[in-house]
Model the fold of this input.
Amino acid sequence: MSIRGKAYIAGAWEHPLRKAPDHSVAQLHYEVAKGALDDAGLTFADVDGFFCAGDAPGLGAHSMVDYLGLDLRHVDTTETGGSSYLAHVSHAAQAIMAGKCDVALVTLAGRPRSERTDIRAAAPIEDPDAPDVPFEVPYQPVLSAVYALCAMRHMYEYGTTPEQLAWIKVAASHHAAHNPHAMLRDRVTVEDVISSPMVADPLHRLDCCVVTDGGGALVVTRPEIAKSLSRPRVKVLGAGESIGHRRGGTADITTTAAAISGPAAFAEAGVRPADIDYAAIYDSFTITVLMQLEDLGFCEKGRGGAFVADGNLISGVGRLPFNTDGGGLCNNHPANRGGMTKVIEAVRQLRGEANPAVQVPDCRLAVASGIGGPLATRHGSATLILERE
Amino acid sequence: MEMLTFSAPAVNPETRPFWDACNDGKLLVGRCTTCRKHHYYPRPFCPHCGGDKVEWVEAEGTGQVYSYTVMRRFEPVRVLCMVELAEGVRMMTVLRTAEPDAVRIGLPVSLAFAESAGGQKLPVFEPAG
Done:
């Protein structure tokens, strides 16, 4: 059994706001849901499956389903941090294949910028009953520092340089320059990145993503319904997910769980990394991108630095155009969770609706890769392979 | 050198022996009596082989820096560290040093203890020698 071709992304919408002081979180969920349903040509009455994660206020899906007034046959509140929404697309495809729902709505929204909850400076989980927490949180392992541990070790093992990491931000900034909604629209240079203030060695301020309010939503539906709609069709070809963890203190922190989820997704889709036209890669920090590219198989382990350098990720310049909306590094990282916007820009690319300056010509096949949580300790990884039909 | 501060770890019945040992100046790690592998953080079963016969063993208290970062936005700056113990397992900790810019991967380190808020002792490390 496989989800290959069993579901389509029929609607995708990103909230245009990057700061929403006059919105509630619930209202943002409504607006993105409405946006994605309008995009698909469907209505709230068509929705019979709902998917949300930890950003949704209230217990699980209860409050959002009540607020939105949905009548459901299927619900899924899988929580794997920022990667949740990629997992939701996969789970929606599975549910559709099993006959559990026909129209699945996935929403994400939050207001960390207005609420000044900067996750880069926070310990992500402080639940005292989480078995790892007493052994880590007292040392104050904020997210930027935990990702820095990966970057430092990657540099030590493979000779990766700060300049190579900086190229990832440079590429994102070139794309964001064409996005009127992007939070950071100035093109930056490698020198700009490495001369920005050090946050946690070897990560500089410009190695980090933005903190934004807003959100996004997706509509996933069965083939018969997708074919009755007027929008270009984006087919779900394959998916994989995993959780990377400490392995009793023996884990290699230069590898992500994309090394599991990626090959699983490619195998289900029946395609290879070399076939990919567009890559949506979770970019909480520059190092996050580099490690995923290796683990997804775009280059050998340890060769990510050379792979991303010299503009190789810039659309129209390099071999692998990535995050053409400017990504989390420059455009948007709503609710401190970048998985939703990865899928949305992949859908735009496959529909041929990205900003013209960054549209990949004849974009047929895309990968979307999401990471959720601190990479050096415990993180979720979810991979999707999407195809324009 | 300004003092680093640490929040108090939540102690529960499962981990009480670990934290009591810290207060006695000892760092305990788990060892499986079946596969003989160590694990950290400790738990009452082996995360490597699934065996349920594990013992507490006292770590030698030596190791090396597996990875680190200098948290520049903290005052005083804080060297967050993963230390690889002589027993082979790696743990999240802090390296207490007057020279954060001299830290390197591979630096030999030795065990020390710091008091967290409320008095519970916490394992930290210092450059060896």
Remarks:
- Residues 72 and 108 of chain B are 23 Å apart (CA to CA).
- Chain B touches chain A through 43 residues (CB under 8 Å).
- The mean pLDDT of chain B is 96.
